[in-house]
């Protein structure tokens, strides 16, 4: 039995998922996580390294890695790729000027071998900002339809209002669970048959 098979079996037993939050700086990655964790979202500052948050959600332990997105930090993203089950790519929907940069970074990321097979959720964040790009517009701007290597979805959201944050996390958990935990064993159908409760301390 190969090492990867053993690791996969153990993780399946422990019902763990590793989720990587990436995106350009100022996109709102840390704010989304603070919102999920019920923390004060006014007290965020740019991430210069990384944060890890662990949530138990729908019986799965989610290990979420939130890595700083400043240009000088992006070369370090690769240090976090190992065993990633899902990527959450956070976009500042009000930042039209950097949408091309955002697209380039995303498509470069997806070429990484170690991320092959990871689910991809694009969070079109900051929808509460006037003039924010709609998710359909961002889908085109980031050429999401050109992505054939990963299962992906895009969801508009706002870390400030809480809109769709949990729905996005649900999609990630369902997609990963369907692939790793169920697909490989029984191939059974819907994973989250009932809408899950809000993540423990989440307040909308
Ligand atoms: N209006 C609005 N502002 C937001 C939203 N989410 C985040 N922000 C603000 O955007 C700024 C950047 O948020 P962060 O969470 O630090 O962004 P980040 O992606 O973690 O940035 P780095 O750590 O530098 O990679 C902060 O001033 C947040 O208050 C949102 O949904 N709406
Ligand atoms: Mg941050």
From TrEMBL:
Listed PROSITE patterns: ARF (PS51417)
Keywords noted in UniProt: GTP-binding, Lipoprotein, Magnesium, Metal-binding, Myristate, Nucleotide-binding
GO molecular function: GTP binding; GTPase activity; metal ion binding
Keyword Magnesium: yes
Domain of life: Eukaryota
Binding residues for Mg(2+): 30, 47
InterPro entries found in the cross-reference section: Arl2 (IPR045873), ARL2/3 (IPR044612), P-loop_NTPase (IPR027417), Small_GTP-bd (IPR005225), Small_GTPase_ARF/SAR (IPR006689)
UniProt-annotated binding residues for GTP: 23-30, 69, 125-128
UniProt keyword annotation of Ion transport present: no
A Pfam entry, by short name: Arf
Coiled coil: none
NCBIfam families tied to this protein: small_GTP
Family label: Belongs to the small GTPase superfamily. Arf family.
Name of the featured protein: ADP-ribosylation factor-like protein 2
């Amino acid at each position: 039995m190969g090492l990867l098979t053993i690791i996969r079996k153990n993780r399946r037993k422990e019902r763990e998922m590793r989720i990587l939050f990436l995106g350009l700086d100022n996109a709102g990655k840390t704010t989304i996580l603070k919102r999920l964790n019920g923390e004060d979202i006014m007290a965020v500052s740019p991430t210069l390294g990384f944060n890890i948050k662990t949530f138990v959600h729908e019986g799965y332990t989610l290990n979420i890695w939130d890595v700083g997105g400043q240009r000088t930090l992006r070369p370090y993203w690769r240090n976090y790729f190992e065993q990633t089950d899902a990527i959450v790519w956070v976009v500042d929907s009000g930042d039209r000027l950097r949408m091309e940069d955002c697209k380039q970074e995303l498509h470069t990321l997806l070429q990484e071998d170690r991320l092959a097979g990871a689910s991809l959720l694009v969070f079109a964040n900051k929808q509460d900002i006037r003039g924010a790009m709609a998710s359909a517009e961002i889908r085109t701007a980031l050429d999401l339809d050109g992505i054939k290597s990963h299962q992906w979805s895009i969801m508009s959201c706002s870390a400030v209002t809480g809109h769709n944050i949990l729905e996005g996390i649900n999609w990630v958990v369902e997609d990963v669970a369907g692939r790793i935990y169920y697909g490989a064993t029984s191939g059974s159908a819907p994973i989250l048959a009932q809408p899950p409760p809000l993540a423990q301390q989440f307040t909308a």
